Amino acid sequence: MVSTSKEAKGILDPGVLKGALRASFKKLDPRALWSNPVMLCVEVGSVITTVNFAYGLASGKGEPAWFTGLVSFWLWLTVLFATFAEALAEGRGKARAEDLRKTRTEVMAKKLKKPELGAPYDLVSGQQLRKGDVILVEANDMIPGDGEVIVGAALVDESAVTGESAPVVREAGGDRSAVTGGTRVIANRFVMRITANPGETFLDRMIALVEGAKRRKTPNEIALEVLLIALTVVFLLVVLNLSPVSIYSAKARGQGQPVTLTVIIALFVCLIPTTIAALLSAIGIAGMDRLFQRNVIAMSGRAIEAAGDVNVLLLDKTGTITLGNRQAVAFIPVAGHTDAQVAEAAFWLPSPTRPRKVAALWCWLRKNINCACGSCRPTPPPFPSGPRPASAGWISMSAPIVKARRRPSSALWKAGAGPFPRNLIPRLPRLPKPGAPPWW
Amino acid sequence: MSNNGMLFDLLQILACLSLLTLLVKPLGRYMTRVYQGDRTLLSPIFVPVENLLYRAAGIDPQVEMGWKQYALAMLIFNGLGGLVLLAILLLQGWLPVNPEKFAGFSWDLALNTAVSFMTNTNWQFYSGESAASYFTQTLGLTVQQFLSAASGMAILIALIRGFARHTAETLGNFWVDLTRGTLYILLPLSLIAAVFLASQGVIQNFSPYAKTTLIQEVQDTKGNVVKEQTIPMGPVASLEAIKELGTNGGGFFNANSSHPFENPTPVTNFVEILLILLIPAGLTYTFGHMVGSTRQGWAIYVAMMILFVCALGAMYWAESHGNPLVQKSGVQGIYLEGKEVRFGLGGSVLFSCATTGTSCGAVNNMHDSLTPLGGLVPLWLILLGEIVFGGVGSGLYTMLAFVVIAVFVAGLMIGRTPEYLGKKIEIREMWMSVIIVLTAGIVILWFSGVSLLIPAGVSAMSNPGPHGLSEVLYAFASTANNNGSALAGLNGNMFYNLMTAAAMLLGRFFPKVAVLAMAGSLVRKKYIPPSLGTLPTDQAPFVLWLVLVIWIIGALTFFPALAMGPMVEHLIMQGGL
Q1: What ipTM was predicted for this assembly?
Q2: Which of A222, A234, A290 to mutate to test the interface with B (most CBs of B within 10 A)?
């Protein structure tokens, strides 16, 4: 379904940068900065020093204009840096969503004039479909939108959405008539009625998710913000206290000048936790973006926090928008077994009922192992006698992730074939590193 | 200074701190039993008294309170106590046991004093021997010294229960905690201490002031010939014991613990220092014991000890170096200006650190006479929030708020969910901790700034310049943190009476209610068993981290103010200006 470019858009992509720069100025609006009180304080400070600067330029009195000007410049730069970082992080997510959307519009639909199988049709873009349109979907067509089958029946590969690798039958009438956009018809054909306008479909919601503009704050983030706001208030008082102290000191000693407003604002900005405040939202968005580069869609900041505690991720089936055809890409022999033994054992894996998996296995074995075990012949060899080798232990993928992190051996090893091979443990974290499935 | 003197000081400090450490466990264990309602050694005597009190007040000791009820009970109790004291102070002239015929306090001074003793601050804008009758001293001030201390401990115990219990609603019964704390802990300990102090020469009588004829006649400032000296008397030992034990600090005499009738010998000095630190230190063990891991209590104790020893070292160094101008003029020996010869440098420095690290505020030397940097240390200890052992109860609950902040920040830095003692640290806990930790700082900065802008504030300063700044800063630090010691130098006019009273009230009750609110939120939480992802809070790295967090928060908040006060003063002194 989704065939985006393999590399995500780089952080220095000129388009992304330009958009972020524009957005960073837009985000200077106090209403937008309201959610980040620390930066709002800096902005207020910048406005005051700028007014001071303008006044100094116009009247020539007060502090030297170059000084107030320079301070204002740095203060504005601080605010802009914060908004820019946030805009940049958001921009990357948006660019990614753009890619998704582009591929979607390329789907062509066969819009029928009458809801019958043999009726004439026009080829229209998937984007132009509206609720109530009737379309024809034939073998190897992609279903262009959410809807229900009204005539006929077909075998639909829904792995892209449900993760189920076996195709399912969708037919008119009954409770098996609903189809989802983005899935593909494998055999036969049917007529369907669109039930969702563009922008409301399952896929659209997913794209909206990727854009990540509506990022909710995580509980930890809110708690951290409490600390930052409190510190900001304290520092506000610190500098406010400094002013009478310096006025008093200058008066008491009869020499020196009290600290000026510009200096106090500059000191205030130096003291308050601007860096964390500036980067907090950017860090959150960047975290979501990094997950996205690995083809994981983080639905909330909370998910990222949880993800921070995960070392190894094991999935029992493919995810929501990935294709469900699993392939064996590598076998790892443990406990002194050879590749050939693994291959043979793998052949005898339990539940060899699913044709696809066996096919995948065969495919890999033929390609990679020049083995003499005989299992690579079209007909399976006789079942090996003696105890089943340890390497054939079936690694159950259904254990919860968190449990796996804490006690890897017990969660993973369900073979009943002796102790868990120790030398596998250090390799476990590296296994899922390559990340994306091969077709992504 | 001589090496012998230094060795003696070092031995004294070591002896004091080791003895304190030895006493932590037995006392802490005893206090746990008291607050858990277990039988103790003193139960045969006090259980009937306790039951009688409950029956008389119509309290069912079995009924527990939620945090709001607990807070309300605390506020009502302290408020009523303050009102009674206020009445006593105002009506002093008509009340009995007043051999010197002292008149009542002016309303603003009475208000200041009532607030001061009700909040465990014991800031004194009056001189005990020339303004307060025996009735006031005993039934007014000494009573509040017991009750304000017991109330602080009760709040801490409620917070500990918040950590120790889970998926519960109630934090205990305020009246029971108050009564048990007073009867089983404060009363017996101060009785022992008072008897010991009296045996060493601290006076305890209700006689009129004694008069003696001077051997040599002197002239007063107006040129009149003075032949007689008046020597104030009074029930000092009973007040002295609870003054130290309850980290109150309000002395019987103006000279406080430097007066020979309050603190006659180096031995009483040593015992008084120990009394100041005893309960706050013991409470760390009580905390560990009640939450089910004494290591947690010891970790906090060690963090406090590190802070204490660092402060002590800095102050000793500054004081032993003294004023270069004096040395230049050829004067040898220890810098003893403002100190008592009988306590020496070690006894004075140790006392100063103990009294400002806790919320005691008793003094055995004149803090105003310390060198600028030497005076910076007590001020610093107060500004940190008096957590170095801290006030009875108040020190540890403030420390626990720092712990919550430290756990939270550390948790975020290493990517762990912030948990402490199996309780998740969430937004509410952060708000409350921040209020507990920063209220005093905010009050100090705000009030001292205002005082420097208002003519009434500036005119009351008798030492203009950086030292005057230090004095104003110290006054608000001391009152907002409920310490009560002073750099003096501020004339107690109505402006300062009211400003410091407000500082004391805000600095005491804001954090206290926040503590209870935090306890109320913690007690409802589920217990999360420690896992690989839990930050261990009973090991050295966390202890050091905690110390660092405390220093950083303190430095960030107060560095500018300290730079303009004591540090400028130090530079001026060094420069000989």
Answers
A1: 0.82
A2: A234
